[in-house]
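TASK: fixed-backbone design
INPUT:
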């Protein structure tokens, strides 16, 4: 039986994505995103995540995603040498955000 390893995360890109040829012969795109959460006492906590995509999705992410763009990622968590990465299976491109601006309507891309 397989254990459940599924991630759904929404945040904002911290920088432009990077498209490279992978060791397996395909293409991969890597980008970082930040999520912000306000605690009950009014403090804001930021968490940073690294996301990888492959093949056609990698090309779409490289072409359409830019720093400060909102994104929703569905994928799974993987660990390599103590570093955790989200491997995206689906990415929704969200509108560009100004600081402290809530997300709006989404456009799916996969």
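OUTPUT:
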């Amino acid at each position: 039986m397989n254990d459940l390893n599924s991630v759904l995360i929404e945040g904002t890109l911290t920088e432009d994505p990077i498209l490279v040829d992978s060791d397996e012969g395909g293409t991969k795109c890597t980008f970082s995103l930040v999520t912000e959460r306000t605690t009950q006492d009014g403090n804001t906590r930021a968490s940073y995540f690294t996301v990888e995509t492959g093949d056609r999705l990698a090309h779409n992410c490289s072409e359409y995603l830019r720093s400060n763009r909102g994104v929703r990622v569905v994928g799974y968590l993987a660990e390599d040498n103590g570093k955790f990465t989200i491997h995206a299976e689906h990415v929704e491109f969200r509108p560009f955000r100004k600081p402290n601006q809530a997300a709006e309507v989404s456009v799916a891309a996969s």
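COMMENT: Residues 102-110 have pLDDT under 50 and may be disordered.
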